[in-house]
From TrEMBL:
InterPro entries: GP_PDE_dom (IPR030395), PLC-like_Pdiesterase_TIM-brl (IPR017946). The keyword Nucleus does not apply. Residues 1-19 form the signal peptide. Transmembrane segments: none annotated. One of its GO terms (biological process) is lipid metabolic process. Residues 41-282 form the GP-PDE domain. This is Glycerophosphodiester phosphodiesterase. The keyword Signal applies. Keywords: Signal. Gene3D superfamilies: Phosphatidylinositol (PI) phosphodiesterase. GO terms for molecular function: phosphoric diester hydrolase activity.
Length: 286
């Protein structure tokens, strides 16, 4: 059972955007606590605990683990020489001291880059990690939500990811601690064929605000999760996703208010830069 730790400390402020009176705030709080006690809220550290450490680095992943997230979310791409690495953008420009497309650089070239200084001097020297390093460091310790980033740029990436998981015996269900997702839904069909026992998810941007029941049913034929932009999430969408047999982990919450809103909408998990907004510890009886 998951807990949002800051609700009781700052409810007057946190709930002000959701209700106009003290009575309405109390009703809203009661609703949230009730739902908290009725369902398990999955806490996903987006690109690691990226509100506290440079995204997609081992520092961010370790921070997410230390903060007791249920999953770390990682972005996987492929270098020019076929190495799987964790980085969000299709270029290295924003999050390292280098330039160029990920797919045009060798692993050796990417490995030399500083992926931490942009976030803070204390992270100087952080490297772009490999997919296999992340698996070896965290398997069995925390769930790993794997996003295939722009797989259309990297032919064969689905097979390489599958090989790495199979080599480590991570292709069998184990409390669903491995999930694969992508905005490229065709890629997810391919990946599901390679890894039929691994849960998969389809990511959905704002353009999917009017997704139909028929489309959700089509996704459900190969996906276990429909993970949309948080701005399009409504009670009806959550209900429709559940009716299709899938679960819903919206992205990306960056404030306590956003986390509270998603919780009250009845989602199954929250993908967040700040794992402290969606906590893991069970509620204690007074």
């Amino acid at each position: 059972m998951k807990r949002i730790v800051t609700v009781l400390a700052g409810v007057g402020i946190a709930m002000s955007s959701f209700a106009g009176t003290a009575a309405a705030e109390q009703v809203e709080l009661s609703s949230i606590v009730s739902k908290q006690e009725q369902q398990k809220m999955i806490n996903v550290a987006h690109r690691g605990a990226s509100g506290h450490a440079p995204e997609n680095t081992m520092a961010a992943f370790h921070k997410g683990f230390e903060m007791k997230a249920d999953y770390i979310e990682i972005d996987v791409q492929m270098t020019k020489d076929g190495e799987l690495v964790a980085i969000h953008d299709t270029t290295v420009d924003r999050t390292t001291n280098g330039t160029g497309a990920v797919g045009s650089l060798t692993f050796e070239e990417i490995r030399k880059l500083d992926a931490g200084s942009w976030f803070g001097t204390e992270f100087a020297g952080e490297q772009v990690p490999t997919f296999e390093e992340i698996l070896d460091a965290f398997r069995g310790k925390i769930g790993i939500l794997i996003e295939l980033k722009a797989p259309e740029l990297y032919p064969g990436i689905e097979e390489k990811v599958a090989e790495a998981l199979i080599e480590r015996n991570l292709h069998h269900p184990n409390n669903e601690k491995i999930i694969i997702q992508s905005f490229n839904h065709e890629s997810m069909k391919t990946s599901k064929e390679l890894l039929p026992n691994v849960p998969h998810g389809v990511l959905a941007g704002a353009s999917w605000a009017d997704v139909t029941d028929e489309q959700l049913d089509e996704f459900a034929a190969y996906a276990d999760y429909f993970n949309p932009n948080m701005n399009i999430v409504t009670h009806d969408l959550v209900s429709d996703v559940h009716d299709s047999g899938m679960r819903i982990y919206p992205y990306t919450s960056r404030s306590q208010e956003q986390a509270l809103r998603l919780f009250d909408l009845g989602v199954d998990g929250i993908i967040t830069d700040y794992t402290e907004h969606v906590y893991k510890h069970p509620v204690k009886n007074s």
